[in-house]
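Question: Hello, beginner here. Any chance you could explain the protein record under this note? Any guidance would be welcome.
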Amino acid sequence: METIFPPFDPDDEGGHRPRLRQVRQIPIRMILPNLVTLLALCAGLTAIRMAIEARYGEAISMIVIAAVLDGIDGRVARLLRSTSRFGAELDSLTDFVNFGVAPAILLYVWTLDEVRSLGWIAALVFAICAALRLARFNVSIDNPNKPDWQANFFVGVPAPAGALIVLLPVYLEYLDLPHNSFTAPLVLVYTIAVGLLMVSRLPTWSGKKFGARVPREAVLPLFVLVVVLAASLLSYPWHLLAAGAFIYLAALPIGWRAWKKHRREDQAAAAGSTETEIGDSI
C-alpha cells in the first residue's frame, strides 16, 4: 500500500537523494539600487504622516526627497549593471505611494476636504491616474525600430513630475496667496486635470539622456549650478518649486510641438525614400 510519505535512505549515494538548493551570495551592487528605492519609499510614507499632522512643508520636503531618490536609483542600477525585474517592480510600487498616494492625501487634508466627497473623489482620481500611468509604463514594449529621438519623450506626464506640479497651489499659499472659499473648488479641478495629464497620450520631455555625457569644460560650471540650485532650494523653496511647476506646465506645448516636428521629419524622410525606391525600380 502506498504511503503519503515514502521512506528514503539518507545515505543513498545512487543519485536518488534530492539535492538541496545552494544559497548564492548576492553582490552588494545588486542590493544598493533597491536600498535607494526603499529610502524613497520611507520618504513617501513619512510625507503621508506629515500631511496627516498638518505639517505640509515637511510633507512636501519628503516628496521632493523621494523624487530625487527616484531619479537616482535607476541611474545607479544602470551604472552598476544591477538592473533586475525585482527592482523594477519595487520602483513602480514605490512611485505609486510617493507620487500617487502621498500628494493625494496631502491635498485632501490641506483643502479638498472642504468640498467633502467631491474632494475625496478628486484625490482618488489623481491616485488612480498615477497607478494607471505606472502600469502603462511597465507594460509598454520598446520598439527596436523606433527612431532615437523618441527616447527623449514620455507618453503623458511622468508620476514624479505630476506629483510636484499638482502641489503648486500649496506652494502658492506659502507665497502668501490668500486661501478663500474658491480655493478648494479650483484645487479640485486642477488636481483632476493633472491626473488626466498623467494618463494622456501627450508627449513630454523625458530627460533620460540628459547628463549621460558631460563635456570636460562643462564639469566645473555644472558643479556650481548644482550648488546654486541646492542653496536656492534650501533658501527659497517655495519660490523655486512654484517656478519649476510653472516652467514645466509652460514647456508641455513646447515638447508636444518638438515631437510633432520630429514626426513630420520622419514622415518626409520615409516619403522621400519611397519615391527614390519607386524611381529606381522604374
About this structure: The radius of gyration is 25 Å. DSSP finds nine helices and two strands in the chain.
